[in-house]
Amino acid sequence: MPDVTKVVILGGGPGGYEAALVGAQLGGEVTLVDSDGIGGSAVLTDCVPSKTLIATSDVLSAMSEATGLGLHPANGADDLSGTVITDLGAINTRVLHLAQAQSGDIATRLVEEGVRIVRGRGRLVSVGTIVATTSLGEERLEADVVLVATGTHPRVLPDAIPDGERILDWTQVYNLTDLPERLIVVGSGVTGAEFANAYDALGVPVVLVSSRDMVLPGEDPDAARVLQDVFERRGIEIISQARAMSARREGDGVVVGLEDGREVRGSHVLMAVGSIPNTAGIGLEEAGVTLDKRGYVTVDKVSRSSARGIYAAGDCTGVFALASVAAMQGRIAMWHALGDAVPQLKQDTIASNIFTAPEIATVGVTQKDVDEGRSTADVLMLPLASNARAKMQEFTDGFVKLFCLPITGIIVGGVIVAPTASELIHAVSLAVSQRITVDDFAHAFTVYPSLSGSVAEAARRLHNHGKMATAELTN
Ligand SMILES: Cc1cc2nc3c(=O)[nH]c(=O)nc-3n(C[C@H](O)[C@H](O)[C@H](O)COP(=O)(O)OP(=O)(O)OC[C@H]3O[C@@H](n4cnc5c(N)ncnc54)[C@H](O)[C@@H]3O)c2cc1C
Ligand SMILES: NC(=O)c1ccc[n+]([C@@H]2O[C@H](COP(=O)([O-])OP(=O)(O)OC[C@H]3O[C@@H](n4cnc5c(N)ncnc54)[C@H](O)[C@@H]3O)[C@@H](O)[C@H]2O)c1
Known about the structure:
Residues 6-330 form the FAD/NAD(P)-binding domain. Belongs to the class-I pyridine nucleotide-disulfide oxidoreductase family. Residues 350-458 form the Pyridine nucleotide-disulphide oxidoreductase dimerisation domain. Its cofactor is FAD. Pfam families: Pyr_redox_2 (PF07992), Pyr_redox_dim (PF02852). The chain is built from 13 helices and 22 strands. By secondary structure, the protein is α/β, with parallel strands linked by helices. It folds into 3 domains: 6-45 and 95-154 and 276-347, FAD/NAD(P)-binding domain; 167-273, FAD/NAD(P)-binding domain (3-Layer(bba) Sandwich); 358-474, FAD/NAD-linked reductase, C-terminal dimerisation domain (Enolase-like, domain 1). A 7-stranded mixed β-sheet has the order 5-4-3-2-1-6-17. A hairpin with a 4-residue loop joins strand 13 and strand 14 (263-266). The longest helix has 25 residues, at 88-112. It is globular and about 70 Å long. Residues 468-475 have low confidence and may be disordered. The structure holds flavin-adenine dinucleotide and nicotinamide-adenine-dinucleotide. Flavin-adenine dinucleotide binds next to helix 1, strand 2, helix 2, helix 3 and strand 3.
């Protein structure tokens, strides 16, 4: 390696910008090439905007549940949420401003740390050479280390092309200034579920077209069941085992055609049918970077691609489509490339959250791992309905589920379905990453009354599981 390592990063999302910060910290000469704005899709179109929208919809969800707390609307509405004017134009203006401001803050920090930002589209022309196409023309950048962090874009069905007005992908919903009269959401993965939940809370009649039996395929089935029940109770119309084939405009509305010939009518449709990696046409395979059959860059646990000197991070690797994972993969790449101590990416410690009401947070070993024999963990599920704080808050849906190893009682995973699951999961995440036992976890104080008391209670109830297994082993 030369005295100063030249690093060129393609993509300014969390995978790219977090790597840039580490690269600069470790003395690299870092150039970040980004085509659509620093912060990437995470900040400008996906994670930050959706969670900002959900900050508003959460207030309305709480208001709609407040009747049970003795708060009645004064104007004859069904619940408190019916007493406010939901100004979607104002909500979306706030969302977009916040995203732009966040993007600006990240760009400022990068420049302060000595990262050079090139606004343009980059492509590899050889292993160590990138050409960035900018508004001023082409710029050639030589690199000792390249990081590809180009993310993904929304998948489009050939007969349901988004028009940005009524047929929308999730990057386009923030253009709306008026609430849809009836929103069809196609796809009941995390994106579809979060938007169906948010728009329902905003007071929009929602139809959810779900290709499976239940919403959130691939997530914890008990958690998915809770959400399905909550959605149905709130009046979201779920069309299960239905695959959308087309979406077309008709008059002032849209018609979604299903595979079985049925048609669903609404004022708008949001297509949330997955993503495609941004890896085509940027010289990756020509430079020796192996892509899998879906187009994701194949990487190892220190973010190395198959081509020497070329690393990849984030959604374009298909590892786990989360901003936190992208950021960690990016940092790992720089630690490795620039010779610092480097921890491998541990996928079995990743925590994530689905921002619905209630939230669904998970970490580590899953129910599927246990059911399919990949983990021998003991499982305990504790409904939150008996928790004192949950009763005070009139919260009846949700549970805590913990997974621990049978012999040692080490906590290896957890699922929390609760209004603040995204915060509650951190204790479990810490337990998983630090290999804390159920006994140690249960011995730590929790506040009374609190939902976290149920997390500790679940650990306490797993005490005998570990003991029983140990006794069986030693007898
Ligand atoms: C609706 C939605 C909500 C989400 N919510 C959450 C959440 O709450 N929490 C969470 O952890 N994750 C969330 N995610 C996932 C999260 O957004 C992604 O995991 C994250 O964006 C991945 O970061 P990245 O750096 O890999 O890519 P991106 O954020 O996609 O950034 C990649 C950047 O590279 C640019 N680019 C592409 N090609 C080139 C090129 N050739 N040259 C230069 N630049 C290029 C792109 O324009 C983009 O700016 C959500 C996803 C969606 C769809
Ligand atoms: N809160 C968060 O952290 C958050 C939020 C959103 C997305 N994400 C990340 O993004 C990833 C992708 O999530 P996603 O929901 O965008 O995509 P996805 O691929 O997980 O889900 C898309 C869903 O659409 C369904 N589908 C596909 N074609 C269909 C059709 N024609 N008709 C009906 N249904 C159809 C699929 O069966 C699937 O269930 C997640 O795994 C997650 O990692 C995270």
